[in-house]
Amino acid sequence: MSKWIVAGIAVACVASAVPLAAEPAVGTAVPNFRAYDMHGKIVDLSQFRGKTVVLEWNNPGCPFVKKHYESGNMQKTQAAAVAQGAVWLTINSGAPGKQGHMNGPEAQQFVAAQGAKPSAYLLDPQGLVGKGYGAKTTPHLYIIDGKGRLAYNGAIDDKPTADKADIATARNHVLAALGELRAGKPVSVAQSRPYGCTVKYAS
Amino acid sequence: MAWIRFVLMSLALLFAAGAASAQDGVQNRGPHVRIELIAESERPAPGSEITLAFASTPEPGWHAYWENPGDAGLPAKAAWTLPPGAGAGPLRYPVPHRLIIAGLMNYVYEAPFAPLVTLKVPADARLGDALPVRVKLDYLVCTDEICVPEKAELATRLTIGDGAVPADRRSRFDTWRTALPRPLGTPAKYQVDGKTFRLEIPFPAAATLSGEGYFFPLTDGAIDYAAPQRVVRDGDRIVVEAPSKRALPKVEGLLAFGSQGFLLSAAPGTVAAASAGAAPAGWITTALLAFLGAVAGGVILNIMPCVFPILSLKALSLVKAGDEAGNPRGEALAYTAGVVLTCLVLGGILLGLRAGGAAVGWAFQLQDPRVILFLLLLASAIALNLAGLFEIPAPAFANRAAARGQGGAFLTGALAAFVATPCAGPFMGAALGTALILPWPAALAVFGGLGLGIALPFLLLGFVPALRRRLPRPGAWMATLRRILSIPMFLTALALAWVLGRQAGVDGMALGLGAALLAAFGFWWAGRRQARGASHAWLPALPLLLLALAAAALVRPAPVGAERPAVAGAEPFSEVRLAELRAAGRPVFAYFTADWCLTCKVNEKGAIETEAVADAFAKGKVAVLVGDWTNGDPALGRFIERHNRAGVPLYLWYKPGSAEPEVLPQILTQAMLRNLSSGG
């Protein structure tokens, strides 16, 4: 387990090309990053150039994340995105010792137990990717278009509650934006206020 | 292991009743915020509005969120179940706190707090009817580590009655009410200038504020919450600068100073940078300009009545010394050192207080009536000395120092600087205001510059013999000049007595004048003994002087509002007095104001307190009631709430015979008030 932490930190220090706290604006080019995924493989954002990429910030202990996983809403959204040819990266920026932090095997168990469908689950224990994108809450979602520009930044939907019953009547901002991108239309809601727990960054 | 935990937890969730509060593993014993729904009156009158409170107590280590939670978190959501005809307003929150966790900003409450809600009672309700009030509250509560969404089902059962409020409950609600931010009636504006969001809030320069300023935005996405802000008072405005996020059509928020808060709404407009140190790189230029300004201001101070006599005496001593005798350069330097050092010490104290969070301005020492009293005695003593009533016996050590004239010159300089500060305000406002927001070394440079300016003419006299030769020769005329110079000093004393009267009321002024009289007797007595050549001429006069100084212990600032001039015949507002006046059939003009309300001050100066309006009021026998809401008096708050949600200014006109007052516009004109008072 400590091997994972050490490796994660090493990669974050050496490979990560994310400028600190440079939150990208919608419509502008996003910073690149490299991080270990839950299998110990290095994932480089630039390798997905030409594809739509969804970033999802995750903390399995956060009640708002549970709302969307236990109801199956997050998995459904992931599956729909991947089926459309998009890449879905779930990112955990929880610092070691804080709620929601996971190492590789723990993340694998989480993904398996939840039936989650991300293209990759990335570990960012130092919070470099999270701070580089200005990720504030779990969940917090970003969509990057094929040209590497930020197309959406915000919440998964428009019902900021921890109540599963609200999902049925909510507008899924991510699915809506992906659909609009595919149709070549401008994203109608390109920015919303993310809701949930604070990302448990290393202080 | 995580999946086992997950399965177990899911099973537990199926059985757990308060599912939402049971989601965080071990820490699921809720609620982490204890909330009680309390009505101010349990017997509300039909058609009235009463206040409900969500008295909330977070568990230690946990925090609940403000209306705008900041970078993460959620505000509370209330779903009301009310009988037909009843309605609940939005939650009104007290001023929140800032909590930065791992670089993310949270606007929270960590101590007991109480959001208030206005409940409208149905107009057709009959006495004795039950009025059930139910509310489902969804809110989020977090520690630094975890978050738990909680639900509270709260209810209270009211009975339609006479609207009576028990005294203990009223005082509890009044405490909560004073904690609410006050709506700033005057609109603010903002501008996005590159990456900077700049907000301008009209705020009278004279209104006092304490604590650090901070702008809590209610509108999301305008500024970067976690980034530091710069809050600057600049004349009649407050300017807030913060890193901008995106342009928005309107920005609402709460400007807080300590526990005081002001709600405001800002429209886009042009906002000039705060006059001082707009860009961090520019502060050296600003400091240099302020320094030069301070030097110039110091030079001007020399001709002020409070400094001129002292300076002239010193100049005369130089003349006496002549060119050869004495050491004019040394004296000039010593005098300069005295002035500059005193200015630096006063400036240092001021900066120390500023660092300590106290809201003080230059001449802060003049806000305390005891200091004014002391200065009054000092000015009287100097005036009497100039008038020739007595001579100052220099102590032995001072005499020795004064043999070369330098010790005496130093003390004179120190005295000149100390006495000069009352005069500094009007001339030096800008430079000193700058000094207060500059980094401390630059601020000290400004204070030093002020001292240098005061000392400059004397320095010139000391170093340029040609100038000294131009001074007239010593002679009998010097004694005459000295007597004449006592006149401005007496005037200074008079001005100080007036200031004392403003601060401490008639009693304080009488005390001060009495003390000055006592001191004068002492000086007179000592002077007579000096004239006779009696040894220890001062001994009998000393107790009198000490007694005069002791008066400083007795003088107290007058109660706030006592010196508010307003319109002749204006009385403090109270609902009882209003009812009396209306019963007597008199037209009543009731106005509500606060020191921090710029529109109020403009209306008072431009319309209400003008002679024309005062005459018209007198002719129409209009009674004027003034409500001062500066400190958020809860009784006034309740009244204002009933008539106008927007806070002050509020102007009400009660025509004899009509049931409801006419709410006048927020911008008053003399003509409007004259027309009203003539029955138009």
Report on this structure.
Chain A: Residues 24-179 form the Thioredoxin domain. Chain A: Pfam families: AhpC-TSA. Chain A: This is Thioredoxin family protein. The complex is a heterodimer of chains A (203) and B (680). Chain A is an alpha/beta fold. Chain A is 29% helix and 17% strand. Chain A has six helices and nine strands, in the order αβββααβαβαβββαβ. In chain A, β7 (141-144) and β8 (150-154) form a beta hairpin. In chain B, strands 11, 12, 13, 14, 15, 16, 17 and 18 form an eight-stranded mixed β-sheet that branches. Chain B has helices at 2-15, 167-179, 283-301, 308-321, 328-355, 369-386, 396-403, 406-437, 440-463, 465-470, 477-532, 542-554, 575-583, 598-608, 611-619, 634-643, 670-677, and strands spanning 33-39, 49-58, 63-70, 77-81, 87-88, 97-101, 104-109, 116-120, 130-142, 147-159, 182-183, 188-193, 196-202, 213-217, 230-234, 237-243, 251-257, 260-268, 571-572, 588-593, 623-628, 650-654, 662-664. Chain B is of the alpha+beta class. Chain B folds into four domains: 33-179, Thiol:disulfide interchange protein DsbD, N-terminal domain (Immunoglobulin-like); 188-268, Sandwich (Immunoglobulin-like); 283-554, no CATH class; 570-678, 3-Layer(aba) Sandwich (Glutaredoxin), CATH 3.40.30.10. The chains are: A alpha/beta (203), B alpha+beta (680). Chains A and B meet through α2, α4 and β9 of A and α1, β9 and β10 of B.
Annotate the secondary structure layout.
The complex is a heterodimer of chains A (203) and B (680).
Chain A: H1 2-14, E1 34-36, E2 42-44, E3 53-57, H2 63-70, H3 73-83, E4 87-92, H4 104-114, E5 120-123, H5 128-133, E6 137-138, E7 141-144, E8 150-154, H6 173-182, E9 197-198
Parallel strand pairs in A: 3-4, 4-5
Antiparallel strand pairs in A: 1-2, 3-7, 6-9, 7-8
Chain B: H1 2-15, E1 33-39, E2 49-58, E3 63-70, E4 77-81, E5 87-88, E6 97-101, E7 104-109, E8 116-120, E9 130-142, E10 147-159, H2 167-179, E11 182-183, E12 188-193, E13 196-202, E14 213-217, E15 230-234, E16 237-243, E17 251-257, E18 260-268, H3 283-301, H4 308-321, H5 328-355, H6 369-386, H7 396-403, H8 406-437, H9 440-463, H10 465-470, H11 477-532, H12 542-554, E19 571-572, H13 575-583, E20 588-593, H14 598-608, H15 611-619, E21 623-628, H16 634-643, E22 650-654, E23 662-664, H17 670-677
Parallel strand pairs in B: 11-18, 12-18, 19-21, 20-21
Antiparallel strand pairs in B: 1-2, 2-8, 3-7, 3-9, 4-9, 5-8, 6-7, 9-10, 12-13, 13-16, 14-17, 15-16, 17-18, 20-22, 22-23
Pfam families (chain B): DsbD_N, DsbD_TM, Thioredoxin_7
Domain Thioredoxin (chain B): 552-673
GO molecular function (chain B): protein-disulfide reductase activity
